[in-house]
Amino acid sequence: MYMTVPETAVFLSMPEEQVNRYVLEGRIRAVHDGEQYLINTSQFESHFQQLEVAKLELEEWRATPIPDDIDIKDED
């Protein structure tokens, strides 16, 4: 499915200017139909999958208790 730059900006929750910049830099692949850039949304699937994996790993890391420090000495 192809979307225009404004539609992609809404889809990615970022400003249109940033999407335009990414297209011109080649960070987002797009085709130019003579009037506007069209962006294939399938290129974002792996990005969103990686974000979900990162969120799960972060939650797992936050849920892991801090181990007792073996270097603590009882001075009593």
TrEMBL record:
Protein name in UniProt: Excisionase
InterPro entries named in the record: HTH_17, SinI_DNA-bd
Ranges of residues in domain Helix-turn-helix: 2-50
Pfam annotation, one family: HTH_17
GO-annotated molecular function: DNA binding
Species this protein is from: Planococcus rifietoensis
